[in-house]
Design goal:
Length: 217
């Protein structure tokens, strides 16, 4: 097992996978067995995951791409005070791929890769019961981060995708997900494509002092 600090630093969003290299079920089982040790309110363990590969994944991707070409996803916009962060991230990601801001067609093609799960062979859907609230969403988040780290330690790449939740009715219908489960996000899992430029960038973080305060008097 790699050093924890090393794994935390190595984890990043993979934006293109090797589609023909499947994810061994054994590795998924090992990572999930670690992830379920995450804490949750009253031990509710609110996380619900559905994975699709092979023909099931292909049907889901085809349906999502069809919908994405027809209408924009239902994703709440960021508040104005935070919107610049998305623009800055986009500039780094698209810049690494050589896509200029004014190249609308290249950007459209790149955006559509979201609903291909960036060609990952394993497409995950992260859900939570609709009656649960914010504190339980924290539990799902802690589970998901633990899963990401465990998968990273196994040599796999991942990408958490809010875009997938933009078409919840498509996801529900394609995978038979019960209506009482809310779709929180997607999760692409696979082996990173080493030749894809955006896989080599590392997004910076703000200084800790900007988000953390200590009181000692």
């Amino acid at each position: 097992m790699p050093d924890l600090e090393e794994v935390i630093k190595e984890r990043h969003s993979t934006r293109m996978f090797l589609p023909d290299r499947p994810v061994p079920r054994r590795l998924m089982d090992e990572a999930l067995a670690l992830a379920v040790r995450a804490p949750s309110n009253s031990n509710i363990q609110p996380w619900q995951l559905v994975f699709a590969s092979g023909a099931a994944r292909d049907r889901l991707v085809a349906a999502l791409l069809h919908e994405a070409r027809m209408r924009p996803p239902k994703i709440p916009p960021l508040p104005p005070a935070f919107a610049h962060l998305r623009r800055e991230l986009g500039a780094q990601v698209y810049g690494s791929m050589g896509i200029a801001r004014e190249d609308t067609e290249a950007r459209r093609v790149a955006v559509l890769r979201n609903w291909e799960f960036f060609r990952a062979p394993l497409a995950g859907i992260v859900c939570m019961h609709r009656d649960l609230g914010t504190v339980d969403a924290l539990g799902v988040g802690m589970f998901l981060q633990t899963l990401l780290l465990a998968l990273t330690a196994c040599g796999l790449g991942t990408c958490v995708q809010v875009s997938i939740a933009g078409y919840p009715e498509i996801v529900h219908a394609q995978l038979g997900i019960p209506t009482e489960l809310s779709v929180l996000c997607g999760l692409a899992v696979g082996y990173p494509d080493p030749a894809f430029p955006a896989n080599n960038i590392r997004i910076g973080r703000r200084a800790i002092s900007e988000n953390v305060v200590f009181h000692d008097v």
